[in-house]
TrEMBL record:
PANTHER family: LONG-CHAIN-FATTY-ACID--COA LIGASE (PTHR43767), NONRIBOSOMAL PEPTIDE SYNTHASE PES1 (EUROFUNG)-RELATED (PTHR43767:SF1). It comes from the Bacteria. Residues 418-492 form the AMP-binding enzyme C-terminal domain. SUPFAM superfamilies: Acetyl-CoA synthetase-like. Residues 14-367 form the AMP-dependent synthetase/ligase domain. It comes from Actinophytocola glycyrrhizae. This is Class I adenylate-forming enzyme family protein.
């Protein structure tokens, strides 16, 4: 421990309750919960975790669909000095077992409907399991955690581990990313300060809370200087989203681009969405045609952001008072951004290079992998693997993932450029471009698309559409039309799955 721990997330939650008081703060499936109820439950659950043997530094898996108990669990785990280890509920059994084994988790809090999956994956690992809902034999009801003595806040240093988040694993085995109390505190604070410019307090939360993006949104709310009100969806579903916005007069919602594309396909005129003022879009790059249509149809400002798990989820965001379409905003105060060439030298404003970041939000390292940590964080700079540029005014522009770059006959092709053109076609709702191995050119440009409801277009039509609008080396030589473009569990395009369409 190397400090007084003034950024302890349990202290942050305690002070938020003291500052804002008791009020109706969270609506979920027909019922309002007060901030006092959530706080009181978390204090009792912290005591219950300790009574069941959870010690400071222990990893506690949280694997639930979105429910109020996720908020309660996060705060309770931090209060007990343990480490939140979120696991998204769409994991397969082998993926889940890898996380449980690799993290050495001693306890888990899960939803009842996931008990079968979890029990099979955790067999023989000795994980104490607490179940929200009907608890099967061999597990402990979550309610039992709330029946004991309240738990005091366990002291933690700023650089003590607060969360262990596993990357999605779409490019290989999921890796544990170690995030400290201060890093998450600073990242949440930066997000909160930026959000204040939007002057909104009523939000709809459709994102999986067991993910870096959802986690940082909850921490950001603990920094609020006003009483934030949230409506929680168990999982994103567009009709339910629209219904909740209209019913509760919600003003904003953090989303990923795929959610916006699904919302645009709905009969929006049937809902009163006049209360909406902004969207916070992150998790993936938002194609400009989609942004323009969202702002036009919903009458809102779309505020884009950028981050990665290794940088405590958020690096830059647009604000209502300082935004530039096509960018992902300016870096937040806790994140210093540099654009570096392959030799590690800064490039001039307006030129592309690798986005690198340093500051308190940078991860403590990869769990039990010093070699990978040393390759990824060099001289204090986190190398994100993303290509981007800073303009003359300091706005950050994300070009693409370096690993997704397609090299066709020696020419660089960025998938995002191809996708943006395909999305200009009125029939296309979602587009995903990848490289296909090619003996003559190294890689060939190909794409998969999902059409908007009621629209028609063939792959050949779309190839010609792109060919007329792009340089000869860039346009896709093959486009396949799918019922649904594959997405990851958090709504990003699953390029690994798309590639298999062209290589199998």
């Amino acid at each position: 421990m190397t400090g007084p721990g003034e950024h302890n997330l349990a202290v942050l939650a305690e002070r938020a309750f003291e500052r804002l008081g008791d009020y109706e703060s969270l609506f979920f499936e027909g019922r309002w919960l007060t901030s006092g109820e959530i706080h009181e439950r978390s204090v009792r659950v912290a005591g219950g975790l300790r009574a069941h043997g959870v010690a400071p530094g222990d990893r506690v898996v949280v694997m639930m669909m979105n429910t109020p108990e996720v908020f309660v669990s996060y705060r309770a785990i931090w209060r007990a000095g343990a480490v939140v280890t979120p696991v998204i509920f769409l994991q397969t059994a082998p993926e889940l077992r890898h996380i449980l084994t690799d993290s050495g988790a001693t306890a888990a809090i899960i939803s009842a409907e996931l008990a079968g999956l979890f029990g099979g994956a955790a067999e023989g690992l000795g994980v104490t399991t607490f179940v929200v809902g009907d608890a099967p034999a061999g597990t402990t009801p979550f309610a039992d955690l709330e029946g004991g003595e309240p738990g005091a806040i366990e002291p933690r240093a700023d650089d003590d581990l607060a969360a262990l988040l596993y990357t999605g694993g779409t490019t290989g085995r999921a890796k544990g990313v170690m995030l400290g109390h201060r890093g998450l505190w600073e990242s949440g604070h930066g997000l909160s300060v930026a959000a204040r410019t939007a002057d909104t307090t009523r939000s709809l939360l459709p994102l999986p809370l067991s993910h870096a993006y959802g986690l940082i949104v909850t921490i950001g709310a603990l920094h609020s200087d006003r009483r934030p009100v949230s409506v929680l969806q168990r999982w994103f579903e567009p009709v339910g989203w629209l219904t909740l916005v209209a019913e509760h007069r919600l003003e904003t919602s953090p989303v990923v681009p795929a959610m916006l594309q699904l919302l645009l396909a709905q009969p929006l005129a049937e809902y009163d969405l006049s209360s909406l003022r902004s969207f916070g879009s992150g998790g993936a790059t938002l194609p400009p045609p989609v942004r323009e249509k969202v702002e036009e149809v919903f009458g809102v400002t779309v505020l884009e952001g950028y981050g990665c798990t290794e940088a405590s989820a958020v690096i830059s965001v647009e604000t209502v008072t300082d935004h530039r379409p096509g960018s992902v905003g300016k870096p937040l105060p806790h994140a210093e951004v540099a654009i570096l060439d392959p030799d590690g030298n800064p490039v001039p404003a307006g030129e592309d290079g690798e986005i690198c970041v340093r500051g308190p939000g940078v991860m403590l390292g990869y769990w039990r992998d010093r070699e990978l940590t040393a390759r990824t964080v060099r001289d204090g700079w986190l190398h994100t693997g993303d290509l981007g540029r800073l303009d003359d005014d300091g706005f950050l522009h994300v070009v693409d993932r370096m690993k997704d770059l397609i090299i066709r006959g020696g020419f660089n092709v960025y998938p995002r450029d191809v996708e943006d053109v395909l999305l200009e076609h009125p029939a296309v709702q979602v587009a995903a471009c990848v490289g296909k191995p090619d003996q003559e050119r190294g890689e060939e440009v190909v794409a998969a698309v999902q059409l908007a409801p009621g629209q028609e277009a063939t792959g050949a039509d779309l190839v010609e559409f792109a060919r007329a609008r792009m340089a000869r080396y860039k346009y896709p030589r093959e486009v396949v039309v799918l019922d649904a473009v594959p997405l990851t569990s958090v709504g990003k395009i699953n390029r690994k799955a798309v590639r298999t369409l062209f290589t199998n």
